[in-house]
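In this supplementary section we document a worked example of the pipeline. Step one takes a protein sequence of length 374 as its only input; no multiple sequence alignment statistics are reported here. Step two produces a three-dimensional model, which step three serialises into structure tokens for compact storage. The input and output of this example are shown verbatim.
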Amino acid sequence: MDQPLKDALHMQRAIAISWHGQGFVEPNPMVGCVIVQGADVIGEGWHAHFGQPHAEVNALKDATDKGADLVGATAYVTLEPCSHHGKTGPCADALIAAKVARVVVGVLDPNPEVSGKGVKRLEAAGIEVTTGVEAAEARNSLAPYLKRTQRQLPWVIAKWAMTVDGKIATVHGDSQWISNEHSREIVQKIRGRVDGIMVGTRTALQDDPALTARGEKSRTPTRIVVDSNVRLRLNSNLVTTALEVPTVLVAGPFHDYQHAKKIGELGVEIWVSQQSDPCERLLLFMKEFVSRGGTNLLVEGGGELLGSLHRMKQIDEAHVFIGPKILGGRNSITPVEGQNPIFMETADQLALRSVRRLDDDVYMQYRRVAQGAS
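The serialised model returned by step three reads:
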């Protein structure tokens, strides 16, 4: 097997195991590491939990526990090894101490504290470094971290259930239930790995959701209601449970201050922006969300909120559940509303990542194709 193919195969494995950290490591990146000696894989590891050892350290330990000889080995890492002290020591130093001969990197870390310094430290120690191996797929696994680090914005995951003819609710807002129980269990798992769950005013008022992640989960997401005029009811599920689950209401400059005060007294944080433009207000809150440590933001509707995010090119990922129903109706509600486009060429291009059949439902995952990408 020639070296480029060998490098690609081992990096693909490192990328695959990095996903085990999803929902546990944020705001850190998901990283995988595979260590190879000759033709044999002698160690594997991934970053499993925030604040705990990184992928390289776990892979080195795996190899050591097996009694493997690390001297002269090659380490495949999806993200450039860190070179600074954070909650753990520098991974570059751990690889140097292990006396590996070569390190293969998928993506250089844009974090200013790393940003090439890890590679330079390895090379200064006499270790051969190869970068950019399987970079496109490595970037896909690292996409939430990269967006957060480079743009100070969260990775936005849109979720909706719709009928075969593309409706999410009747003209009066009735939407329960389009998808089946199996699909709804998947949604609970998605909720359990994100930092925040966001809905708009109409969804909050009509559906009165709890927006909690039930069952086994890694974190408790903050519930966020984009409610410019503060119309959320005092007896809503979101307000009555606000002392148990963190809840934020994003308000505009001209909201009902007396009503907001009552909601705040019941445990809801009222975050106010003086921006009159809803999109600017939303963008400011998203940056605030990141400054508080958020990475992944799940948006569950409604159509106006998703329309605003779509207009700002901020929907990064979509989880779409199609129920076996045809609703019909010119005025039935669709997933993404807002302004009416004139030309199809303005549509966002998506890449299909997976398709699953859930009994009679269909579950599809998409990623947005970045402008200029092929």
